[in-house]
Structures
1.
Amino acid sequence: MPLIHSLSGVVIRCFKKVESAADWMTGAAGPVFVFMCWSLILSGGFIYFDVVVRSLSLLSLFLLSPLLILVPLNLYGQYYLVTHVPPGYPAPKPSGEEKKAAAWLIPNPKSIWAGERWGFVRQGRALTGASGMSGVWEGASRRVRRCRKCDGPKPERTHHCSVCKRCVLQMDHHCPWINACVGLHNQRHFVLFMAWLSTGCATVSITGYHAFLATFDYHAEWPSWTPKIGFTLIYVLCLAIGFAVSVLMFWHLYMVSYGETSIESHDNAYLAGKAKKEGLIYLNPYDLGRRRNLQLFFNIGPNGYSKMSLLFPLVLPPASNGWSFPRRPIPSHPPAKSTNLHAPELADGLIARANGLGLGLGLEGEVPNAEGELRSPIGGHAEDGMGGYVMGDEEGLTDDEEGGGGWMDLGDPQYRFGNDDR
Ligand SMILES: [Zn+2]
Ligand SMILES: [Zn+2]
């Protein structure tokens, strides 16, 4: 028996070594991936204009002009932003690099990327007083999970990235194509980049079809600088990448519309299965209805920005500060057979409460329960399952294999590393 025990120890250590080697490789290969991505989208754009746009008639040019302007603007703009805007972290590292990154999280209104500069202002009052890394816990004594790996605070929906070696607010996944984590502050750029890339690939596929056929015709006129083989290659790549990215984009939009990140999608599927075995219906606490989930993700609609902001590569603050999120109520009625768990009317109720009572995204809405733990009055707890519902909570959702770091008190001065030093 001791032999098996020590052998399994060796195997686990080996797995950990392989895992951290893979993480290191993902991090080291990141800049190569970003270089490849820039090369592809820049050469794709150039070749398309050189081969297809130059042979378009004046009428087609006029009809296609919105796409010919908006696609390159957003494709390059959103990719620049998704690789520069950090995902947002619960605890900053005090270094020069960190200050540069922080400037993206609280954008200068005079910056060329700032929505304010181009007339995009938030409608209504902001749901949270603070954004980014500072001012979140001013004067507040709040218990928050501690990350076992980096020893820093780990608010709800935060996960530790083993490639970035730090905690990331509302982490979705680590993406080698942008050499960064996708999280609270850059996921909007991530999804919009995929959307504009899909649109661009579709435009090339449709309007470049004749030119693609001409590359196989030896007698066809070819006035472009780009050799025929170059266009054939770009066209085929466009079809393949366009298809793959569209699928990925719709999958992300699907998850967003259900109020979950990629990580939470796994957690929720697991928790839903577990609840079903016990005859209960699992509710995702962050699911406020399809429409409201999408509005909060893109920060448009009530309390957000204009829908037009989706058409430009602009930095807008996220709807949440990343430390607390609005939660759905547990329905007071028992579940019917065909209960719509994504009822949009829930969202309206939450907005009304957020405006009227200061609940919703703000920390001020949370009240301590009998054990002194902070609970949102509109949120739920697994133990509070009423009428056959069960709702995941802060502990359930972040208490994965990265958990187990216990709790920390943010009122303690030694944890005030997020102070405003701008
Ligand atoms: Zn961590
Ligand atoms: Zn990462």
Note: The pocket of zinc ion (ligand 2) is lined by residues 161, 163-164, 174, 181 (CB under 6 Å).
2.
Amino acid sequence: MATISKRQLDETLAAFETTVSGADATVKLKDDKLFERLKTFKETTWFAKSDDLSAPVCARYGWINRGLETLYCPTCENTLVCEIPAEASPEEVLAKSKEYRDNLLTAHGESCPWAIHHLDDTAYRLPLSSPAHTIQAFRNRYKALSQHPPSIPKIVFNESQAGRSVNVDLLHQNLHVDGDESEELTRSCILLALFGWEFPNEQATDFLQCRLCARIVGLWNYDHIVTLTDADSADRRKRIKVAQDISVELPSHFDVLWEHRSYCPWICTPPGSGQQKLGWIATLDTVLSAGKPNRLLAHMPPPIPKVTRTTTALESA
Ligand SMILES: [Zn+2]
Ligand SMILES: [Zn+2]
């Protein structure tokens, strides 16, 4: 008899649990409080730590980042300083991070609930959801983005770094969204939405945010698609700068992959989380398989099981 693993069971149950709530469908961490803690970790105050001491790990142990290399527990109000000298070798960073990780539990106050309990590895992952929910959430991200053309930055999507090509036209077709946007605008919105990027809300369309790694990026530094005159002048400025050999240049295009934090479930599979595929690949596969002509399959004869015929002792007798 075929057995079903716990993971398969979870995924099957999740498909029934999640209801497709149309305009509300979204992809976010299951635990809102975990996300709120994660938001406090900034590149300027939490850096040069190994995976043992990444922001999601500390947040799973109840800590927020308050001040330079400092963790703070809002429940017991204890702090834990995790200094790693800038000149530390990679081996020292690993050793130090491991040492601090042991303190993530013990540094809480005696009566703090975090001293005996923390969220396990599975708390930080792409949330389980049904294909219908995944597609609806993608469609919602796309629609919201495409309604604000002046906000959309020029984007970079490097297929060889991503390890997978994307047929934007096919995705657009499978999402069943109409619109008369330009080809470049459609492509940008599709790829931003595929990688989980969205406006924080209707009013804050000058930012893109990720609801899994809590990255928020201001869009004013990037070249935009729609404001042609500005884009032209930006291109010109850039050419002039290149000509003058000025080496420091802000990126003019938004990289849909690398703007996420390195631990983001959209672009990696967090260790121990049970997540099988990178978030964007899982989304891509779901939308593509939803567009496959299943109706045709219904009229096809069932596949013939492949039998390797061997002569048994009984037959040869
Ligand atoms: Zn505590
Ligand atoms: Zn992210």
Note: The beta strands are 64-65, 70-72, 79-81, 155-156, 207-209, 216-218, 254-255.
